[in-house]
Amino acid sequence: MSSSPTLASRLKGRSELGVALLLGAAGVLVLVDAIALVTPYSQSDPVGPKTLPYLVAGLLIVCAIMLAVNVLRGGQGEAEGGEDVDLTHPADWKTVLPLVGAFVANILLIDWAGWVISGTVLFWGSAWALGSRHYIRDGIIALALSVLTFYGFYLGLGIPLPAGLLEGVL
Amino acid sequence: MDVFSSLMDGFATALTPMNFLYAVIGVLLGTAVGVLPGLGPAMTVALLLPVTYALEPTSAFIMFAGIYYGGMYGGSTTSILLNTPGESSSVVTAIEGNKMAKAGRAAQALATAAIGSFVAGTIGTALLAVCAPIVVKFAVSLGSPSYFAIMVLALLAVTAVLGSSRLRGFAALGLGLAIGLVGIDSVTGQRRLTFGQPLLADGLDIVVVAVAIFAVGEALWVAAHLRRNPLQVIPVGRPWMGKKDWKRSWKPWLRGTAFGFPFGALPAGGAEIPTFLSYVTEKRLSKHPEEFGHGAIEGVAGPEAANNAAAAGTMTPLLALGLPTNATAAVMLAAFTSYGIQPGPQLFASQGPLVWALIASLFIGNFLLLLINLPLAPLWAKLLQLPRPYLYAGILFFATLGAYSVNLQAFDLVILLALGALGFMMRRFGLPVLPLILGVILGPRIEGQLRKTLQLSAGDPAGLWSEPIAVGIYILIALILLWPLLFKLYRRNRPAATPAGIPVTSGSSAPRDATGSHSHSSRSGGEPSDGDGDG
Fold this sequence. Notes:
The structure holds 2 protein chains of 2 kinds. Chain A is mostly helical.
C-alpha cells in the first residue's frame, strides 16, 4: 500500500531518519575500527578478529540504508506502549531533560561526594523532574533510601559504596 | 531413576533453612518488583542481580528461581488490575483479565491466574527436569559447527519471527552485536571498539547493558510520556474461585501449558505466540464464546498458564545448551557467567548439584508463589498505587546502584546513561529490545564457535556444515528468513500468476509482514496497516 503520504506524515516520520543515520554511523565506526586492526594471518585462528566486525558493520550499514528507504516510503516504527505511557501527547522534554540532569549530577558527584549524597540528589532530582512537589517528604525518602542502601550494600553484601565527603561520618 | 534421585538431592539442597529463606525472599522481591508497572521480568532480574552478589552460587540461583517466577506472576497481576498490559507476554491476559476485574471478578481472575501459573509452572518444571537431561545427552555429541548454527538460529529466529518489523529487528540485532564486540578479543588480544579507553578493554558489562536498556531506557521513555491522569486500579480482595470457575479453568490451564512449554523451549520461543494461541483456542472451544471480550475466565486461565509454562520451557535451552531465548533468560545467562558458571551440556556434569538445586527451587518457588500470592494479592494491588514520581525515581536510583556496584566505577554510569538514551530511542522508534540483548550476549559466543569451527577445519569454510545437525539448522534458518517471501508468493499466486523472481527485494524490505502481525494484532485492534513493501 504505497499510497502517497501527506506532507505532515512525511515530516513526522522524518525524525526516524536519525535512527538510520545512527545505524549507519555505528556501522562505519565498526568498519573503520576493524580495518585498523593489524593481525598477521594465523593458522590457529583463520577467522581472526576482523571477520565478525566486518559482518556486523555490513549488517548495520544495510539496515541503515533500508531503514532510510523504508522511512522515506512512509514506513514508521511503532512506539512502545505501557502501563504508564500515554502516547497521545508528544514527548515531554521538560520532564526528560531535568531527569537526565539528575542522572548526570549523580555521575559527577558519586566518586567525590559519595553515594549517600549523590544518591539523594539523584532520587530527589528525579522525583522533582517527574512532577513530585513534596520537597521535604521527597528529601527524607531520598536520604533514607541512600543511607539504607549504603549500609545494606556494605554490611549485607560486602560492597563498599563510596562514602566520599561523609567519610568518617558513616 | 537417575533424574529422580538427582532431583531429590536438589530438593535436599534447596530446602535447607537458609536456602529456603532465600527462595522466599526471591519470590517476595520478584513479585513486588514485577507488580510495579513498567518493570517486566527481565528488568526485575537485572535490577535484583546485585542483591545476589554476596551469596554463594547455589543460594544465589535459588533466589533467582524465586525472582524469575515471582516477576512473571507479578506482571500478570498488573495487567489484570490495570487497564493496559505491561510486557508483551501479558497482553493477552489483560484482554479478558481486565474485563473480569472491571466486572467485579478481579478475585477470580487473580485466582485463576495464580493457580493456573502454579499448575503450568509445576508441569513445566517437571518437563524441564525430564527434557533437560535428554537435550544434554544429545547436546554433548554436538561440536562447534552445530553450536554455531544453533546460536545463529536463535538470534535470527528471535529477530525475524517476533516483533512487528523485521528490518527494525535486524537493526537492533546489529547494534547489540556491535556492543558485544567492544573489548579485548579473547584470541588475539586485539582491542576492538575501545577507542583507546582502558576502561572499555574488558568490554561492556552485560548487567550494565541490560539495566541501561531495560530500566533506564524505560524510565526515560515513561518520563517523556507520563500519563497525566493515573490509571484506575481495581480494588481486590483475597483471590478465590467458585466451583464453576474451577470447572471452567482446569482444561484451559492444561491446554495453555501444552502450548507454552514447547514454545518457550524453542529458539524463537517467548510467551507471546503461545499465549495468543491459547487465547484463540479457548475462545473456539469455550461453551461461552459470547463472554469473550467481556471477561471470560478461560481467556485468563489459558494464556496465564501458557505464559508460565513458557517461562519453564525457556529454562531448558538455557540450562542444557547455554542458549537464552528471551530477555529474562539472557539476563540469567549473564548472571551464571558472572559466577564463572558456563551453562551448557557440561554444566550438568560439572555443576550437577547446583543445576538440580536450581530446578528443585523452581518447584519450590512456584509453590511459594501460590502460597504467598493468594493472601498477599491485596497488598500487591496497593503497590500499583505507588506515586509515579517515586516509582520511576526509584527505578533510576536502583538502576544506578546496580550498575555502579558491579565495578564501582562512575564510568559505568556514563555508559548506563548513553545506553539508556539508546533504549529510549529504540522505544520511540519501535526497535525491539530483545534482539539487542541477545546480540550482546550471544555475539561473542557465536564468534568463539565460528573460530573454533574454522580452526578445526583449518580454515576451510566447509567445516561449517560438517555436522548433519548444522545442515538441518541452516535449512531451518533459510525457511525462517524466506517465510514472508514464500507467504507473499502464495498470496500473490492466488489472484494471478506472477513471475517468481521479482519480489526478492520488496520482500526483504517489507517492514511489517505476515509473521509479525499475529502476535501484535492483539495489542491494538485498529492498528494502521502500513505494509508498504507489498506494493
